[in-house]
Amino acid sequence: MSQFTDVFLQFIDGWGYYAVAILMALENACIPIPSELILGFAGYMIYAGRMTFTMAMVAGMVGGMLGSYFAYYVGHYGGRPFVDKYGKYFFVKKSHVDIAQEWFDKYGIKAVFFSRMLPVVRTFISLPAGFAHVDMKKFFFYTFIGSLPWTALILFIGMMLGEGWKVMMEVGHEISLAVAAAIVIICIVLYVQYKRKKKKRVH
């Protein structure tokens, strides 16, 4: 998809929030457009005063959620055979779906949350969730809370980097792993605090 980078940037430059929402929908619908490109450039637009953080955040989340639902329904109604047969026409590699499937098989519905911050997996995790016919309310919940910090952080980094926002394209995977590690640590800390408070109440 790198050959279309300039096209995507021109689209965002011309259509603003609508373009952010559409491209994030495509990315989450398993079209491998890097979210670092979409949200990173949107962050630069915030820096340049052409977007607001709040509206860019809303556009990114709305698009991401719609795309995730679309991919979920493709997996739900089409199944793995359909994706393997027709996915190649939409730049969907079987190996990428395999990676997402491995994550889902290992961690279940919780993989939908953690994978939103990981390279490759975040784009395709909705498919195995659809294959497994997971509960829609749980899918919505884990997709939302997983997408929210990732969307906000990439927008913020793009905004802070300003004209140097393209650095994220070079270190996107490292950023993803760092974000995932930080969120895992925060979850562990919150869980430990919760258990301690619960134990105190019992005593």
From TrEMBL:
Spans through the membrane: 15-39, 51-72, 113-132, 139-161, 173-192
Residue stretches making up the VTT domain: 33-158
Determine the domain of life of the protein's source.
Bacteria
Record's Gene Ontology CC terms? plasma membrane
* Membrane topology classification: Multi-pass membrane protein
- Asked whether the keyword Cell membrane is assigned, the reply is yes
* Classification via Pfam families: VTT_dom
Q: Which UniProt keywords apply?
A: Cell membrane, Membrane, Transmembrane, Transmembrane helix
Instruction: Please state the span of the N-terminal signal peptide per the UniProt entry.
Output: none
Q: Where in the cell is it found?
A: Cell membrane
Give the family this protein belongs to, as stated in its UniProt record: Belongs to the DedA family.
Question: This chain belongs to which protein, by name?
Answer: DedA family protein
Please report the organism this UniProt entry assigns to the protein: Anaerovibrio slackiae
